[in-house]
Design goal:
Elements lengths: L1 E5 L8 H13 L4 E4 L6 H14 L4 E5 L2 H7 L3 E4 L6 H4 L8 E6 L2 H9 L4 E4 L16 H11 L4 E4 L7 H6 L4 E4 L5
Parallel strand pairs: 1-2, 1-8, 2-3, 3-4, 4-5, 5-6, 6-7, 7-8
Length: 184
């Protein structure tokens, strides 16, 4: 089971506290960290990504939404909201092996993400989110199962994922789980 921690620095007293949590999560086997600090200016985000790369050298560091920062900082990839340009349109400026993930909320969006060249997708919310409010109703395990079966790219379950329900997501076909509070 692949595990992705999505950051939220507001849950920590300091950036050092968040980076300490990242180091512990990596030691526990988290394979990917999505740096999701939407309100940071490009320079601040760049510096934070560099710190994550130093603290977690064997973990893939993915930057939320900011392809420019991800490329400049030497991150392993970018995670895009569903309304972004197609991953295939961005490949020309990305180095080989650079990951492009896409947020999806329906089976049709998963199919589109695959068709448009995404390396992976996150399907959310599978359950009621724990760390933030969502206007979207929970999709449930049946939609997750149908979604995973409809695409060949890895799908990570997101939204309300806990230690108690992570295995059910994998049984439904998810390649992995992702969460904000799951690893913090």
């Amino acid at each position: 089971m692949k595990r992705c921690w999505i950051t939220n620095r507001n849950l920590f007293a300091s950036a050092d506290g968040m980076l300490g949590c990242a180091a512990r999560a990596c030691a526990m086997g988290v394979e990917m960290i999505q740096v999701r600090e939407k309100d940071l200016a490009a320079r601040e985000l760049y510096e934070l990504v560099h710190r994550f790369l130093s603290v977690c050298p064997r973990t893939r560091i993915i930057v939320n939404s900011r392809l420019d920062v991800a490329l400049a900082a030497g991150a392993h990839g970018v995670h895009l909201p569903g309304c972004s340009p197609a991953p295939s349109a961005l490949r020309a400026i990305c180095r080989p092996g650079f990951l492009i993930g896409v947020s999806c909320h329906t089976v049709d969006e998963l199919k589109a993400a695959e068709r448009e060249g995404a390396d992976y997708a996150m399907l959310a919310p599978v359950f009621t989110p724990i760390s933030k409010a969502s206007a979207l109703p929970p999709l449930g395990l049946d939609v997750l199962r149908r979604g995973c079966a409809s695409v060949a790219i890895p799908v990570h379950a997101l939204g309300g994922i806990t230690a108690a329900n992570a295995a059910a997501c994998i049984e439904a076909g998810a390649a992995g789980v992702a969460g904000i509070s799951l690893f913090a």
